[in-house]
Amino acid sequence: MTKRKKIFLEEHEMPRQWYNIAADLPGTLNPPLGPDGNPIGPEMLAPVFPMNLIEQEVSSERWIDIPEKVLEMLAIWRPAPLVRAYALEEALGTPARIYYKNESVSPAGSHKPNTAVAQAYYNKEFGIKKLTTETGAGQWGSALSFACSLLGLECKVFMVRVSFDQKPFRKMMMEAWGGTCIPSPSDQTQAGRNVLAEFPDTPGSLGIAISEAIEAAVTDPTGETRYSLGSVLNHVMLHQTIIGLEAKKQLKKINEKLPDVIIGCAGGGSNFAGISFPFIQDKINGAEMEIIAVEPASCPTLTKAPFAYDHGDIAKMTPLLAMNSLGHGFIPPPIHAGGLRYHGMSPLVSHAVKEGLVTPQALHQLECYEAGVIFARSEGIIPAPETNHAIASVIREANKAKEEGKEKVILFNFSGHGLMDLVGYDKYFNGELKDHNLSPEDYEKFTAVLKNHPSPIL
Amino acid sequence: MTKRKKIFLEEHEMPRQWYNIAADLPGTLNPPLGPDGNPIGPEMLAPVFPMNLIEQEVSSERWIDIPEKVLEMLAIWRPAPLVRAYALEEALGTPARIYYKNESVSPAGSHKPNTAVAQAYYNKEFGIKKLTTETGAGQWGSALSFACSLLGLECKVFMVRVSFDQKPFRKMMMEAWGGTCIPSPSDQTQAGRNVLAEFPDTPGSLGIAISEAIEAAVTDPTGETRYSLGSVLNHVMLHQTIIGLEAKKQLKKINEKLPDVIIGCAGGGSNFAGISFPFIQDKINGAEMEIIAVEPASCPTLTKAPFAYDHGDIAKMTPLLAMNSLGHGFIPPPIHAGGLRYHGMSPLVSHAVKEGLVTPQALHQLECYEAGVIFARSEGIIPAPETNHAIASVIREANKAKEEGKEKVILFNFSGHGLMDLVGYDKYFNGELKDHNLSPEDYEKFTAVLKNHPSPIL
Questions:
Q1: Domain enclosing residue A99, as ranges
Q2: Binning pLDDT at 50, 70 and 90, where does residue B2 land?
């Protein structure tokens, strides 16, 4: 055992502060706008989020303390191991040194609990008794149920009906943690009843589920319910930076240099932000590194969509956010990486791309599944379909390093395992999956809404 | 963060030798017998297992070196964390200090890969190209597929048809690692064809699947196929002792005393042996501790069955092993802890019980699910239904410590997570599960075969 595969940190070495990239990003951040096109104030968000999280959402402080109780909950699975992928390197015959941050070790199997425990904590501190949220593939709903169970909060998850029917195990997982999971649209909200009246057989959508979850929160007469979102927003990115902060400590522990390349997949942007933001700080300060956000070619938010003001949901219940967006009505093809099928993108990630700090990349799903299988059969862990996008990009970079004969250091975020998503692999092996491109017609159709907003395309 | 939840070992602190309890057990171990009632020699096992594993099976050396390559594969997830269950202690209000060894962090989600990587390695060293095995609930088949993928061995798994149909995700998991999984009985073996001819609609059984897997190994004309078993045998227990050896180092690292109570669930005995055998050595040498093997009341091998010679499979293809057995024809009720539904028990574990070193305990499944839910909602990890048996026993001991006002140290093996077994929880919440007892009539009926063997009940 001359090779050391895993680099652990002890619990006392866990970062004590999150990194807020808003303090360092060049250029001016565009504020969220209300329906009238004017910037919204914190008080307008108060029915939806607790004020302590709203403060984080708009904060420009560089470092924000992680509360002791949050650290305690994170310690259930953190610090997460940093792993040197020797077997993958060998399989590829690359001179690159490949490291991955293994976020699949959380009880819910992905990076999502990093922000779930923080959000549940701040809500509880604020006197909130119950959280509502939506979930598509089920990762976020599971993570929030997990977090609420640790703090004794109620949790209600509106799950897109088609996923609810196809993935019964995700519901069971939420229930094991005491959460409630109902298919959306439901008859529990006006938004849901309206949709059901018109389309009784609808498969549902993330947009409808968000509308129901927000309505369920803001209409609770006790005032003790709030809504929780698992990606996109600034405070979610903030909570995920513990990933990159730990990785930086771990690389230092083995005297490894800063990575030449950092890679994460990007749907709403949270796992990508988690691994990359603490290193983008170094890049802003002069360090040379390539930082790649990988998205599906079928939902090319960062590579194709304009940077514009748009709503986060189809029902336009959220404020207008400045971000890359394919239009809030965009319906991505049914690829098997549910977590990457989102029309928009974190405003902070979008801004970092606009400023040239991050290189976006769009990959097709067949290449990604092929990469996932190579990883599973060398490193031993079956990746989530979303994570396969990062791995496919890593393999491209490792092969490039081989061609160039360079000893590059590549770091990527292993955002989740695939044990709850094996159907995608089955279809891949059976040749039932295909690649999808965004057609120029769809692009025109869906992005047209961006021109109708009170604030023009930026 | 004054509380330290997880105790890690670095990779260089991983044990370099397995502990062979056969060297220390008091009394005389009864050798396996052939069909004629005489002890079998190693050569009789040669068509089934490679000679290097047969040597381990019969070894009386106390310490056996772990090969470097096996350590490298184990390092994918080992050393496994030892975790102080603060939140569970608080939920129970117990003065006991509860620790668990988290074996769910392996890529297959349980302790099974500990022996899978070792067995795959020794087979490859011996020139074997392909392994066959059977699987019931799917844990072992997944683990062996995982191990074979790391070493480039072929892996064929005969999965009990009813599980194959009910748990399609287990098959997909094996295939992601390149294994082949077919429902048993199949038309690929004479044993399978015989059963199908008579009972075309049979749900299959572990006994039939074992027969098919052994036949597929021994009839391969190239001679390059062997059979692999995931529990019961001595070399399997040996490979699992890394669990307890690590736990001992971890307790020492925080200056904790030897545990007062050690608990593991027991089906074939391997995860129980893994956590307990290294501590039983201390008990043999005079240390005082209670070591509890927990089994389901519906399959009470250690608490009710006689210690006798019996076959490991229904088709009587295995040698006669000296063990606690309910009779090789025993069909346990359909409880949701598939890994604990076995008529026999590891001969080494059975012997340790006979010598008074281990206290067996039989629990009902409703109490176990209740315990699992308490654990999931405090410690945050959803346990496998098998592991719930250990947790239920821990809760009993923790409550006893509370009544007695004693600061006991309790150690248990968290043998696997329940993410692939959520249906059991769903049925539990819906009130669809019930407790099962072994009826006196069934006991008489199934144990009758034990009197027909060439060697009498011991």
A1: 6-13+64-109+234-452
A2: low
